[in-house]
Design brief:
The strands form 5 sheets. A 7-stranded mixed sheet has the order 11-12-13-10-9-15-16, with helices on both faces. Strands 6-5-4-7-8-18 form a 6-stranded mixed sheet, sandwiched between helices. The protein is globular. It has 2 domains: about 250 residues, Aldehyde Dehydrogenase, Chain A, domain 1 (3-Layer(aba) Sandwich); about 180 residues, Aldehyde Dehydrogenase, Chain A, domain 2, CATH 3.40.309. By secondary structure, the chain is α/β, with parallel strands linked by helices. It has 14 helices and 19 strands. The protein starts with a strand and ends in an 8-residue tail after the last strand.
Length: about 475
Protein backbone atom coordinates (compact mmCIF):
# COMPACT_ATOMS: atom_id res chain seq x y z
CA UNK A 1 0.00 0.00 0.00
CA UNK A 2 1.49 3.40 -0.95
CA UNK A 3 2.20 5.90 1.81
CA UNK A 4 -0.19 8.66 0.83
CA UNK A 5 -2.95 11.02 1.88
CA UNK A 6 -6.00 10.07 -0.20
CA UNK A 7 -9.13 12.04 0.62
CA UNK A 8 -11.88 9.41 1.14
CA UNK A 9 -14.58 12.00 0.48
CA UNK A 10 -13.34 12.47 -3.08
CA UNK A 11 -10.91 9.64 -3.82
CA UNK A 12 -8.28 12.25 -4.71
CA UNK A 13 -4.63 11.59 -3.87
CA UNK A 14 -3.41 14.76 -2.18
CA UNK A 15 0.13 13.92 -1.16
CA UNK A 16 2.50 10.96 -1.40
CA UNK A 17 5.57 10.06 0.64
CA UNK A 18 8.61 7.92 0.02
CA UNK A 19 9.21 5.07 2.43
CA UNK A 20 12.32 5.25 4.56
CA UNK A 21 15.23 3.18 3.29
CA UNK A 22 17.30 0.72 5.30
CA UNK A 23 19.93 3.32 6.23
CA UNK A 24 17.33 5.78 7.55
CA UNK A 25 15.58 3.05 9.56
CA UNK A 26 18.89 2.00 11.09
CA UNK A 27 19.64 5.59 12.03
CA UNK A 28 16.31 5.94 13.84
CA UNK A 29 16.56 2.64 15.71
CA UNK A 30 20.08 3.55 16.82
CA UNK A 31 18.90 6.99 17.96
CA UNK A 32 16.07 5.40 19.96
CA UNK A 33 18.38 2.88 21.64
CA UNK A 34 20.93 5.58 22.50
CA UNK A 35 18.26 7.89 23.87
CA UNK A 36 16.69 5.18 26.03
CA UNK A 37 19.92 4.70 27.96
CA UNK A 38 19.70 8.33 29.07
CA UNK A 39 15.94 8.94 29.14
CA UNK A 40 15.24 6.00 31.47
CA UNK A 41 17.24 7.84 34.16
CA UNK A 42 15.08 10.99 34.08
CA UNK A 43 12.79 11.60 37.02
CA UNK A 44 9.01 11.58 36.93
CA UNK A 45 8.95 15.32 37.38
CA UNK A 46 10.88 15.91 34.16
CA UNK A 47 8.84 13.35 32.22
CA UNK A 48 5.63 14.98 33.45
CA UNK A 49 6.87 18.42 32.42
CA UNK A 50 7.54 17.18 28.90
CA UNK A 51 4.20 15.39 28.58
CA UNK A 52 2.27 18.41 29.86
CA UNK A 53 4.08 20.47 27.24
CA UNK A 54 2.95 18.08 24.52
CA UNK A 55 -0.62 18.27 25.85
CA UNK A 56 -0.55 22.07 25.70
CA UNK A 57 0.69 22.03 22.10
CA UNK A 58 -1.93 19.51 21.03
CA UNK A 59 -4.69 21.54 22.65
CA UNK A 60 -3.50 24.55 20.65
CA UNK A 61 -3.27 22.53 17.44
CA UNK A 62 -6.56 20.63 17.85
CA UNK A 63 -8.54 22.48 15.13
CA UNK A 64 -5.78 22.07 12.54
CA UNK A 65 -4.85 18.47 13.25
CA UNK A 66 -8.56 17.61 13.31
CA UNK A 67 -8.89 18.81 9.71
CA UNK A 68 -5.80 16.78 8.78
CA UNK A 69 -7.28 13.61 10.29
CA UNK A 70 -10.60 14.19 8.57
CA UNK A 71 -8.91 14.76 5.22
CA UNK A 72 -6.82 11.60 5.60
CA UNK A 73 -9.39 9.11 6.90
CA UNK A 74 -12.82 10.72 6.68
CA UNK A 75 -14.17 11.04 10.23
CA UNK A 76 -16.53 13.99 10.82
CA UNK A 77 -14.42 16.97 11.81
CA UNK A 78 -16.27 17.53 15.10
CA UNK A 79 -15.37 13.97 16.13
CA UNK A 80 -11.77 14.59 15.05
CA UNK A 81 -11.52 17.64 17.33
CA UNK A 82 -12.98 15.61 20.18
CA UNK A 83 -10.36 12.92 19.56
CA UNK A 84 -7.54 15.47 19.78
CA UNK A 85 -8.89 16.85 23.05
CA UNK A 86 -9.31 13.35 24.45
CA UNK A 87 -5.59 12.85 23.81
CA UNK A 88 -4.86 16.06 25.71
CA UNK A 89 -6.85 14.71 28.66
CA UNK A 90 -4.97 11.40 28.65
CA UNK A 91 -1.58 13.10 28.50
CA UNK A 92 -2.39 15.25 31.49
CA UNK A 93 -3.86 12.28 33.35
CA UNK A 94 -0.64 10.28 33.02
CA UNK A 95 1.57 13.29 33.73
CA UNK A 96 -0.28 13.70 37.02
CA UNK A 97 -0.53 10.05 38.07
CA UNK A 98 2.32 8.04 36.56
CA UNK A 99 4.65 8.36 39.54
CA UNK A 100 2.00 7.00 41.90
CA UNK A 101 1.00 4.25 39.49
CA UNK A 102 4.60 3.04 39.25
CA UNK A 103 5.51 3.52 42.90
CA UNK A 104 7.42 0.67 44.52
CA UNK A 105 5.19 -2.04 45.93
CA UNK A 106 5.93 -3.41 49.40
CA UNK A 107 4.77 -6.92 50.36
CA UNK A 108 3.37 -7.53 53.82
CA UNK A 109 6.04 -7.60 56.54
CA UNK A 110 5.18 -11.17 57.47
CA UNK A 111 5.71 -12.32 53.87
CA UNK A 112 9.00 -10.43 53.65
CA UNK A 113 10.25 -12.11 56.82
CA UNK A 114 9.03 -15.50 55.64
CA UNK A 115 11.12 -15.09 52.48
CA UNK A 116 14.23 -14.67 54.60
CA UNK A 117 14.61 -10.99 53.77
CA UNK A 118 15.12 -7.96 55.89
CA UNK A 119 13.53 -5.93 53.14
CA UNK A 120 11.80 -6.64 49.82
CA UNK A 121 9.96 -4.56 47.29
CA UNK A 122 8.87 -4.54 43.66
CA UNK A 123 10.19 -1.78 41.42
CA UNK A 124 8.86 -1.01 37.91
CA UNK A 125 11.56 -0.29 35.34
CA UNK A 126 11.10 0.54 31.63
CA UNK A 127 11.78 -2.11 28.98
CA UNK A 128 13.38 0.09 26.31
CA UNK A 129 12.50 0.78 22.69
CA UNK A 130 8.86 -0.10 21.97
CA UNK A 131 7.55 -0.44 18.41
CA UNK A 132 3.96 0.78 18.01
CA UNK A 133 2.07 -0.46 14.94
CA UNK A 134 -1.03 1.70 14.81
CA UNK A 135 -4.25 1.93 12.72
CA UNK A 136 -5.89 4.75 10.82
CA UNK A 137 -9.32 4.84 12.46
CA UNK A 138 -8.30 6.87 15.54
CA UNK A 139 -4.97 8.15 14.24
CA UNK A 140 -4.19 10.33 17.26
CA UNK A 141 -5.90 8.51 20.12
CA UNK A 142 -4.56 5.04 19.35
CA UNK A 143 -1.01 6.40 19.39
CA UNK A 144 -1.32 8.66 22.43
CA UNK A 145 -2.89 6.00 24.62
CA UNK A 146 0.32 4.01 24.05
CA UNK A 147 2.79 6.88 23.97
CA UNK A 148 1.68 8.78 27.07
CA UNK A 149 2.09 5.88 29.55
CA UNK A 150 5.13 4.45 27.75
CA UNK A 151 7.03 7.73 27.85
CA UNK A 152 6.04 8.38 31.45
CA UNK A 153 7.37 4.92 32.36
CA UNK A 154 10.75 5.80 30.80
CA UNK A 155 10.42 3.90 27.52
CA UNK A 156 10.99 5.41 24.07
CA UNK A 157 8.79 4.84 21.03
CA UNK A 158 9.01 4.03 17.34
CA UNK A 159 5.72 4.58 15.50
CA UNK A 160 4.82 2.63 12.37
CA UNK A 161 1.49 4.25 11.55
CA UNK A 162 -1.06 3.23 8.91
CA UNK A 163 0.05 4.19 5.43
CA UNK A 164 -3.05 6.29 4.74
CA UNK A 165 -2.45 8.76 7.61
CA UNK A 166 1.16 9.88 7.01
CA UNK A 167 0.59 13.54 7.81
CA UNK A 168 -0.96 12.69 11.16
CA UNK A 169 1.95 10.34 11.84
CA UNK A 170 4.51 13.05 11.10
CA UNK A 171 2.59 15.53 13.22
CA UNK A 172 2.92 13.23 16.23
CA UNK A 173 6.70 13.18 15.94
CA UNK A 174 6.74 16.96 15.58
CA UNK A 175 4.43 17.29 18.59
CA UNK A 176 6.76 15.48 20.98
CA UNK A 177 9.84 17.16 19.58
CA UNK A 178 8.16 20.55 19.88
CA UNK A 179 7.37 19.84 23.52
CA UNK A 180 11.06 19.44 24.22
CA UNK A 181 11.48 15.67 24.23
CA UNK A 182 15.11 14.80 23.42
CA UNK A 183 15.90 13.46 19.95
CA UNK A 184 15.11 9.76 19.73
CA UNK A 185 12.38 9.64 22.40
CA UNK A 186 9.53 9.38 19.90
CA UNK A 187 10.03 8.87 16.17
CA UNK A 188 7.73 8.16 13.25
CA UNK A 189 8.84 5.55 10.72
CA UNK A 190 7.25 6.09 7.31
CA UNK A 191 7.56 2.49 6.16
CA UNK A 192 5.33 -0.15 4.66
CA UNK A 193 4.13 -3.23 6.49
CA UNK A 194 6.90 -5.24 4.82
CA UNK A 195 9.45 -3.44 7.00
CA UNK A 196 7.87 -4.40 10.34
CA UNK A 197 9.47 -7.83 10.70
CA UNK A 198 13.06 -6.61 10.40
CA UNK A 199 12.42 -3.76 12.83
CA UNK A 200 10.78 -6.03 15.40
CA UNK A 201 13.56 -8.61 15.11
CA UNK A 202 16.22 -5.96 15.77
CA UNK A 203 17.79 -6.72 19.15
CA UNK A 204 17.54 -3.05 20.17
CA UNK A 205 13.72 -3.16 19.98
CA UNK A 206 12.41 -4.56 23.26
CA UNK A 207 8.67 -4.92 22.69
CA UNK A 208 5.74 -4.09 20.44
CA UNK A 209 2.15 -2.96 20.66
CA UNK A 210 -0.34 -3.28 17.83
CA UNK A 211 -3.87 -2.09 17.28
CA UNK A 212 -5.36 -3.38 14.07
CA UNK A 213 -6.74 -6.39 12.27
CA UNK A 214 -6.58 -9.98 13.41
CA UNK A 215 -4.17 -11.00 10.58
CA UNK A 216 -1.84 -8.12 11.47
CA UNK A 217 -1.95 -9.14 15.12
CA UNK A 218 -1.15 -12.76 14.29
CA UNK A 219 1.84 -11.68 12.24
CA UNK A 220 3.33 -9.36 14.86
CA UNK A 221 2.65 -11.84 17.67
CA UNK A 222 4.35 -14.65 15.73
CA UNK A 223 7.47 -12.58 15.06
CA UNK A 224 7.64 -11.29 18.63
CA UNK A 225 7.08 -14.79 19.97
CA UNK A 226 9.94 -16.11 17.89
CA UNK A 227 12.13 -13.35 19.32
CA UNK A 228 10.66 -13.75 22.85
CA UNK A 229 9.55 -10.14 23.05
CA UNK A 230 6.59 -8.70 24.92
CA UNK A 231 3.53 -7.65 22.92
CA UNK A 232 0.16 -6.03 23.58
CA UNK A 233 -2.53 -6.58 20.93
CA UNK A 234 -5.85 -4.79 20.50
CA UNK A 235 -7.58 -6.36 17.52
CA UNK A 236 -11.07 -6.52 16.06
CA UNK A 237 -14.39 -6.52 17.81
CA UNK A 238 -18.01 -7.43 17.20
CA UNK A 239 -19.44 -5.97 20.36
CA UNK A 240 -22.94 -6.95 21.50
CA UNK A 241 -25.48 -4.35 22.60
CA UNK A 242 -28.08 -6.14 24.71
CA UNK A 243 -31.43 -4.57 25.60
CA UNK A 244 -33.57 -6.23 28.27
CA UNK A 245 -37.22 -5.51 29.25
CA UNK A 246 -36.36 -3.31 32.24
CA UNK A 247 -34.29 -0.93 30.11
CA UNK A 248 -35.16 2.64 29.23
CA UNK A 249 -35.84 1.67 25.63
CA UNK A 250 -35.99 5.18 24.24
CA UNK A 251 -32.62 6.12 25.72
CA UNK A 252 -31.14 2.75 24.75
CA UNK A 253 -32.23 3.25 21.13
CA UNK A 254 -30.95 6.82 21.00
CA UNK A 255 -27.57 5.82 22.44
CA UNK A 256 -27.42 2.82 20.12
CA UNK A 257 -27.32 5.09 17.07
CA UNK A 258 -24.17 6.82 18.29
CA UNK A 259 -22.70 3.54 19.54
CA UNK A 260 -22.96 2.08 16.04
CA UNK A 261 -22.03 4.96 13.75
CA UNK A 262 -19.33 6.74 15.76
CA UNK A 263 -16.28 7.29 13.55
CA UNK A 264 -18.42 6.35 10.51
CA UNK A 265 -18.93 2.94 12.09
CA UNK A 266 -15.21 2.20 11.85
CA UNK A 267 -14.42 1.50 15.48
CA UNK A 268 -13.37 -1.76 17.10
CA UNK A 269 -15.45 -0.93 20.18
CA UNK A 270 -18.50 0.25 18.29
CA UNK A 271 -21.62 -1.75 19.11
CA UNK A 272 -22.32 -3.94 16.10
CA UNK A 273 -24.78 -6.68 17.11
CA UNK A 274 -28.00 -5.46 18.74
CA UNK A 275 -29.53 -8.26 20.80
CA UNK A 276 -32.99 -7.27 22.00
CA UNK A 277 -35.46 -9.08 24.24
CA UNK A 278 -38.67 -9.97 22.44
CA UNK A 279 -40.77 -7.94 24.89
CA UNK A 280 -39.15 -4.68 23.76
CA UNK A 281 -37.83 -5.68 20.33
CA UNK A 282 -40.45 -3.89 18.22
CA UNK A 283 -40.24 -0.66 20.21
CA UNK A 284 -36.44 -0.64 20.11
CA UNK A 285 -36.22 -1.56 16.42
CA UNK A 286 -38.63 1.21 15.46
CA UNK A 287 -36.81 3.91 17.44
CA UNK A 288 -33.32 2.71 16.50
CA UNK A 289 -34.11 2.48 12.79
CA UNK A 290 -35.71 5.92 12.81
CA UNK A 291 -32.60 7.37 14.45
CA UNK A 292 -30.27 5.75 11.93
CA UNK A 293 -32.44 6.91 9.03
CA UNK A 294 -32.24 10.53 10.22
CA UNK A 295 -28.44 10.67 10.17
CA UNK A 296 -26.84 13.14 7.79
CA UNK A 297 -24.32 11.57 5.41
CA UNK A 298 -21.98 13.98 3.69
CA UNK A 299 -18.77 15.97 3.57
CA UNK A 300 -16.88 15.16 6.80
CA UNK A 301 -15.49 18.71 6.92
CA UNK A 302 -19.05 20.04 7.20
CA UNK A 303 -19.92 20.56 10.86
CA UNK A 304 -23.47 19.26 10.28
CA UNK A 305 -22.34 15.85 8.98
CA UNK A 306 -23.03 12.82 11.17
CA UNK A 307 -21.49 10.14 8.96
CA UNK A 308 -18.69 10.65 6.46
CA UNK A 309 -17.11 8.22 3.98
CA UNK A 310 -15.38 4.98 4.77
CA UNK A 311 -11.61 5.30 4.85
CA UNK A 312 -10.92 3.39 1.63
CA UNK A 313 -12.53 2.01 -1.47
CA UNK A 314 -11.62 -1.51 -0.35
CA UNK A 315 -13.27 -0.92 3.02
CA UNK A 316 -16.53 0.00 1.32
CA UNK A 317 -16.28 -2.98 -1.02
CA UNK A 318 -15.81 -5.33 1.95
CA UNK A 319 -18.84 -3.85 3.70
CA UNK A 320 -20.99 -4.11 0.57
CA UNK A 321 -20.00 -7.75 0.24
CA UNK A 322 -21.10 -8.55 3.78
CA UNK A 323 -24.42 -6.72 3.39
CA UNK A 324 -25.03 -8.32 0.00
CA UNK A 325 -24.38 -11.79 1.38
CA UNK A 326 -26.81 -11.23 4.26
CA UNK A 327 -29.59 -9.90 2.05
CA UNK A 328 -29.15 -12.70 -0.46
CA UNK A 329 -29.69 -15.16 2.40
CA UNK A 330 -32.87 -13.56 3.70
CA UNK A 331 -31.88 -10.59 5.85
CA UNK A 332 -33.99 -7.43 5.53
CA UNK A 333 -32.60 -3.91 5.40
CA UNK A 334 -34.87 -1.83 7.65
CA UNK A 335 -32.98 1.18 6.29
CA UNK A 336 -29.97 1.72 4.05
CA UNK A 337 -28.29 -1.28 2.46
CA UNK A 338 -26.54 0.50 -0.43
CA UNK A 339 -24.49 3.52 -1.43
CA UNK A 340 -26.28 6.84 -0.98
CA UNK A 341 -27.59 8.54 -4.08
CA UNK A 342 -25.80 11.61 -5.40
CA UNK A 343 -22.28 10.58 -4.38
CA UNK A 344 -20.37 9.73 -7.53
CA UNK A 345 -17.05 10.38 -5.80
CA UNK A 346 -15.81 9.21 -2.43
CA UNK A 347 -16.41 6.03 -0.48
CA UNK A 348 -19.76 6.64 1.17
CA UNK A 349 -22.19 3.99 2.42
CA UNK A 350 -25.68 4.61 3.77
CA UNK A 351 -26.13 3.76 7.47
CA UNK A 352 -27.90 0.41 7.53
CA UNK A 353 -29.94 -1.74 9.91
CA UNK A 354 -30.26 -5.43 9.05
CA UNK A 355 -32.95 -7.64 10.62
CA UNK A 356 -33.51 -11.35 10.27
CA UNK A 357 -29.81 -12.17 10.55
CA UNK A 358 -28.98 -15.88 10.94
CA UNK A 359 -25.81 -17.86 11.52
CA UNK A 360 -25.78 -18.77 7.82
CA UNK A 361 -24.73 -15.22 6.99
CA UNK A 362 -21.15 -13.97 7.08
CA UNK A 363 -22.24 -10.83 8.88
CA UNK A 364 -23.18 -13.02 11.85
CA UNK A 365 -19.54 -13.81 12.68
CA UNK A 366 -17.45 -11.29 10.75
CA UNK A 367 -16.80 -7.74 11.90
CA UNK A 368 -18.70 -5.04 10.00
CA UNK A 369 -16.30 -2.11 9.86
CA UNK A 370 -18.72 0.56 8.77
CA UNK A 371 -22.20 1.94 9.59
CA UNK A 372 -24.08 -1.39 9.48
CA UNK A 373 -26.00 -2.80 12.45
CA UNK A 374 -27.48 -6.26 12.86
CA UNK A 375 -30.66 -6.82 14.91
CA UNK A 376 -31.49 -10.01 16.82
CA UNK A 377 -34.56 -11.02 18.85
CA UNK A 378 -34.06 -13.17 22.00
CA UNK A 379 -36.37 -14.63 24.63
CA UNK A 380 -34.34 -14.22 27.81
CA UNK A 381 -31.02 -13.77 29.60
CA UNK A 382 -29.63 -17.19 28.71
CA UNK A 383 -30.23 -16.72 25.00
CA UNK A 384 -28.91 -13.15 25.10
CA UNK A 385 -25.63 -14.19 26.74
CA UNK A 386 -25.19 -17.17 24.44
CA UNK A 387 -25.69 -15.00 21.36
CA UNK A 388 -23.46 -12.23 22.73
CA UNK A 389 -20.66 -14.76 23.20
CA UNK A 390 -21.22 -16.45 19.82
CA UNK A 391 -18.35 -14.58 18.17
CA UNK A 392 -14.60 -15.12 17.92
CA UNK A 393 -14.12 -11.62 19.33
CA UNK A 394 -14.36 -10.35 22.89
CA UNK A 395 -13.44 -6.68 23.06
CA UNK A 396 -16.29 -5.03 24.97
CA UNK A 397 -20.04 -5.28 25.49
CA UNK A 398 -23.04 -3.09 26.28
CA UNK A 399 -26.04 -4.16 28.36
CA UNK A 400 -29.21 -2.20 29.10
CA UNK A 401 -31.05 -3.46 32.17
CA UNK A 402 -32.14 -2.20 35.57
CA UNK A 403 -32.37 -5.69 37.02
CA UNK A 404 -29.50 -6.28 39.48
CA UNK A 405 -29.62 -10.05 39.16
CA UNK A 406 -29.33 -9.72 35.37
CA UNK A 407 -26.37 -7.40 35.85
CA UNK A 408 -24.62 -10.01 37.98
CA UNK A 409 -25.24 -12.64 35.31
CA UNK A 410 -23.85 -10.50 32.51
CA UNK A 411 -20.75 -9.53 34.50
CA UNK A 412 -20.13 -13.18 35.33
CA UNK A 413 -20.75 -14.67 31.89
CA UNK A 414 -19.95 -12.13 29.17
CA UNK A 415 -16.75 -13.04 27.31
CA UNK A 416 -15.38 -9.55 26.86
CA UNK A 417 -12.81 -7.11 28.21
CA UNK A 418 -15.55 -4.81 29.46
CA UNK A 419 -19.24 -4.79 30.35
CA UNK A 420 -20.87 -1.34 30.09
CA UNK A 421 -24.34 -1.05 31.63
CA UNK A 422 -26.90 1.51 30.47
CA UNK A 423 -24.45 3.38 28.27
CA UNK A 424 -22.08 2.84 25.37
CA UNK A 425 -18.54 1.51 25.48
CA UNK A 426 -15.90 4.21 25.64
CA UNK A 427 -12.22 4.31 26.55
CA UNK A 428 -11.02 6.51 29.43
CA UNK A 429 -7.51 7.01 30.85
CA UNK A 430 -8.54 5.69 34.26
CA UNK A 431 -10.04 2.41 32.98
CA UNK A 432 -8.08 -0.55 31.56
CA UNK A 433 -8.90 -1.26 27.92
CA UNK A 434 -8.46 -4.47 25.94
CA UNK A 435 -10.10 -7.72 25.00
CA UNK A 436 -10.09 -11.50 25.11
CA UNK A 437 -10.35 -14.26 22.51
CA UNK A 438 -9.41 -12.95 19.04
CA UNK A 439 -9.71 -9.35 20.17
CA UNK A 440 -6.20 -9.65 21.55
CA UNK A 441 -4.46 -9.59 24.91
CA UNK A 442 -2.87 -7.17 27.33
CA UNK A 443 -4.34 -3.88 28.45
CA UNK A 444 -3.95 -0.23 27.57
CA UNK A 445 -4.70 2.78 29.78
CA UNK A 446 -4.98 3.05 33.57
CA UNK A 447 -2.32 1.50 35.79
CA UNK A 448 -2.57 -1.75 33.86
CA UNK A 449 -1.49 -0.04 30.65
CA UNK A 450 1.52 1.80 32.04
CA UNK A 451 2.85 -1.43 33.58
CA UNK A 452 2.59 -3.46 30.35
CA UNK A 453 5.98 -2.24 29.13
CA UNK A 454 7.72 -2.31 32.49
CA UNK A 455 9.97 -4.88 34.11
CA UNK A 456 8.47 -5.74 37.49
CA UNK A 457 11.76 -6.14 39.34
CA UNK A 458 11.97 -7.91 42.69
CA UNK A 459 14.43 -6.20 45.04
CA UNK A 460 15.40 -8.47 47.97
CA UNK A 461 17.79 -7.78 50.84
CA UNK A 462 18.80 -10.73 53.00
CA UNK A 463 18.45 -10.55 56.73
CA UNK A 464 21.60 -10.49 58.87
CA UNK A 465 22.14 -13.73 60.87
CA UNK A 466 21.07 -13.54 64.49
CA UNK A 467 24.35 -13.49 66.45
CA UNK A 468 22.79 -15.29 69.44
CA UNK A 469 21.91 -18.36 67.35
CA UNK A 470 24.83 -18.47 64.92
Amino acid sequence: MPIATVNPASGETLKTFDALGAEAIEHRIAAAADRFRQYRLTGFGERARLLRGAADLLERDAPDIARTMTTEMGKPVAQARAEALKCVKAMRWYAERAEALLADEHPAEADVADSGAAHARVRYRPLGVVLAVMPWNFPLWQVVRFAAPALMAGNVGLLKHASNVPQTALYLEELFRGAGYPEGCFQTLLVGSDAIEAILRDSRVAAATLTGSEPAGRSVAAIAGDEIKKTVLELGGSDPYVVMPSADVERAARTAVTARVQNNGQSCIAAKRFIVHEDVYDAFAERFTAGVRELTVGDPLDESTDVGPLSSEQGRADLEELVGDAMSRGATALCGGARPEGYERGWFFTPTVLAGVTDAMRVHTEETFGPVATLYRVSGVEEAIALANATPFGLSSNVWTRDEEEMRRFVRDMEAGGVFFNGMTASHPALPFGGVKRSGYGRELAGHGIKEFCNATTVWLGAEPDATTS
